[in-house]
Amino acid sequence: MTESPEAPPPATAPEADTTLVDHGENPWKIRDFRLLWLGRLTAVLAIQIQSTAVIWQVLEIARRDHPIEQASLYAGMVGLVQFIPLLLLTLPAGEMADRRDRKLTVSACMGGELVCALAFLGLALSGEPPLWGLLGVAALFGACRAFLAPASQALLPMVVGMKALPRAIVAQSLAFQTGSIAGPTLGGLLLAVSTPFAYAASTVLFVVGLGCFLLIRTDGRPRTPPAHGRWAAVKEGLAYVWRTRVVIGAISLDLVVVLLAGVALLVPVFAASVLDVGPQGFGLLRAAFGVGALVMALYLARFPILRRGGLWMFSAVAVFGVCTLIFGLSQVVWISALALFIGGAADMVSVNIRQTLIQIATPDEMRGRVSSVSMLFIGASNELGEACSGVMVRLLGPVGAAVFGGLGALAATGLWARAFPDLRKADRLT
């Protein structure tokens, strides 16, 4: 790997993790990792089903009184109200993950997400829920996610150790992509039965996920809590990320691309107004992206990328931009699905390289704070990207928004390759 002169060499990270238990190179032999993996899978399934139901429900309610362009803006608000608590709470949550028991934090956040799922179910059973009620629960759900993500990412190396970490990251990606595939498809099928039925299914899955996390035995307490005050520790984490130019370049590129070319909101809008395929087709189109990512994750599990990481990452982001452009111009369902499939595979390459860079370069005592910065740039950008997509659909229409996003992603790839030469030249990922 090629580092900038300002960045601390990634080789120092394993020295900071000598307190982690060595479980060998196979994470599947570790009981707690199997529980962590199953908990993540069920949680992602629950989130995807719930997200599918919320976006479709808000879109349907808004379309009763508004044209599709304005209804899309309301659907984009689902992402915005989840982004606001993420923006406000993620950095303090990362500091807490480096100071408090990470396993306890993850379990508490999962319990909060379960309460939100019950609230969505109650609103759906009430008949015709107000939009402000759905958006309010979505905001609470975003607050839970703000604390969950840094703690769960920081907990993974504590469960598996450093030797098994690369394979564990791929396995966690498999869990995420499996949930991302099955979740939207199940969400569309469950919505065809009834909206409350979809929310009830996500509630049950949250219960299973919470149970898995509660059964984990690994001590989740950080080995070396921050010696500084809360805000000084937060600033220390921000400074570390900024100095590590390869990392800041990778996560900022993802932020810009998701803001410009996020497909989460565009898929239901195209399903409802451009392709006219209904909720079942919406679920299948949304799952196509996850199928491509899952196929690529399976490939990477067998043939991981170990060299020329920067080149692979920029190439993958460029392919993602082209696929978004094709999706926006397509009027044929199978072409749209194929574009999403290839785009998902390209996104998986980018995600795998980025996560590997961040975990290797970060010592355990700062992993929560660095993960929170990554979450703020990457995870929160998904919610903000939905809001931006809603605005662009309102201004340019569905097709214009997708074309603008695809061209913007290609432009960002070129600009970042020039602005972050160390990221472009990054080589070894081990």
Write a short abstract of this structure.
The chain is mainly α and 430 residues long.
Strand content: under 5%
First-residue to last-residue Cα separation:
8 Å
- Helical run tally: 15
- The helicity comes to over 70%
Shape: globular
Residue-averaged pLDDT:
78
Largest sheet: none
Order of helices and strands: HHHHHHHHHHHHHHH
Structural class label = mainly alpha
Instruction: List unreliable stretches of 5+ residues.
Output: 1-19
What does this structure look like?
It is a single chain. With 430 residues, the protein is mostly helical. Helices cover 80% and strands 0% of the residues. The longest helix has 53 residues. The radius of gyration is 20 Å and the shape is globular.
Give a quick set of tags describing it:
mainly alpha
Protein topology:
Elements: H1 13-16, H2 31-63, H3 68-97, H4 102-125, H5 131-160, H6 165-193, H7 195-214, H8 230-243, H9 245-261, H10 266-274, H11 278-302, H12 309-329, H13 333-361, H14 367-419, H15 421-424
Helix pairs in contact: 2-3, 2-5, 2-6, 2-7, 3-5, 3-8, 3-14, 4-5, 4-7, 5-14, 6-7, 6-11, 6-13, 9-13, 9-14, 10-11, 10-14, 11-13, 12-13, 12-14
